Amino acid sequence: MSLFNDKLKKITLEEVLSLIVGLYVIHYFIIKFNIVNIDAIWIYVFVIFYFVFKLRNEIPSLGEDISQLFKLNLLKTIFLVVILNIFLSYGMLYLADFILNIFTVNFSMASYSILSSSLLTIVVVAPISEELIFRGVFLNRLKLFIPLMFSVLVSSVFFASLHSFGSIFSAFIFAICVSFLYLKTDNIVVPIFAHFLNNLFAEIIIVLDSSNVLFNNTLVIIVMSILAVISFALIVMSIIPELKNINNKDL
């Protein structure tokens, strides 16, 4: 474990929650009184700067954490986790589409984006800030007071709650997966990189699928749905037992 990860674990839940609540209150009043036209993404950016300031002396030690990413076995695991979760997320979107159609609610891919902002925000800013908050602080602090498995589940629920209908379940499963990666490696760079890849692949698919074939072609929907079921099964059979192993070691 690098000095960066060691000090990250010492940041308290109270100070991070106070920071986030304070930023949202400031943002609320800025919008309410029309002081300046500003996107909520500035909160994410400010959170990153906060972590950089708190961990500034340990940033040089990130070099060893980044170098760990290039271990072949770890890269394979990260890519597997990301690919399985991409398939799972589309399966959940199909399910959400089906449910919404029953209630005659118009489905739109745009409604499933947590932030209607730039590619840089979705692919870079969100993964860094969210992993620092939910894995770096929430997970680490919660496991000091409750059993490890429960801390993974609780932090994953909080993470999933940021996502809209159709994405909540897949976000919850993804959070469990990256929690597994973080606990296994004790390296916050690993879940950040996995989150980065996940969002990047999702955005690339959206751009390439400009004609919305993934949601208009019955055969494609059936194939993707089958892959989603297979992906979920593989996640349950492989990653969840690994979390139990980590939990047993922690006892």
* Secondary structural class: mainly alpha
Provide the residue-averaged pLDDT.
Answer: 87
Task: Report the total helices.
Answer: 11
Which parts are unreliable, with pLDDT below 50 for 5 consecutive residues or more?
Answer: 109-116
Q: How many strands?
A: 0
* Sheet having the most strands: none
Q: How are helices and strands ordered from N to C?
A: HHHHHHHHHHH
The helix content, as a percent range, equals over 70%
The portion of residues forming beta strands comes to under 5%
How does the overall form come out from the CA principal axes? globular
Radius of gyration: 19 Å
Termini gap: 19 Å
How would you briefly describe this protein structure?
The protein is an all-alpha fold and 251 residues long. 76% of the residues lie in helices and 0% in strands.
